Amino acid sequence: MFCRFCGSKIPEGGRFCAACGKSVLSEETEFSRTQSGQSQGISGTYPMKWFKFVIYVQLFLNIVVLLINAVRCTTGMLYGDDVYMVYLIFRGLKLVDTAYGVVCLILAVAALIVRQKLAHYKAKAPAMYIGYFIVTLMAGLLYTLASLVVISGVSQGMLSSSIAEYAPEMVGQMVGAVVFVPLNYIYFKKRKELFVN
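Above: the chain sequence. Below: its structure as tokens.
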């Protein structure tokens, strides 16, 4: 089967063109399929506002934030003018910051790949999106924990104040994940027949 808009080859059973992203069904076929879906309880009739927000806003903003974090971590901009003093006192912190900066670059590229897979309705795209979110969250938490370990090697007093500072952020991330992951799983499961390319 070939796309009626751009002529690209479409796998059997595909509803969207991987090249241009347009529906390969004619309007009449789409209408009859939607009506059939309504009578059978198929999820093709669900709204797609969250999906559009994810592919047009959320993932692009995520890429921007990750790139900013990568620059700030690899250059030491996190600490402003005190960067040399901080790295002198906490010797392992520069390695932790640099490693997290590299991870942020990798995650930014991954976000772009996930976005493209979602936008072209690839079969595994929803699972990739949820997995990407979990990996991003875990990378942030590991970075925070590694920073705390380095700080604890120098001063227990600074460790206590750092834990007090980072604890609300870490708890917020965990609560967000507990809510975000199941809701997205349910959202995309109801629309799974859209992701067949």
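The two ends are 12 Å apart (CA to CA).
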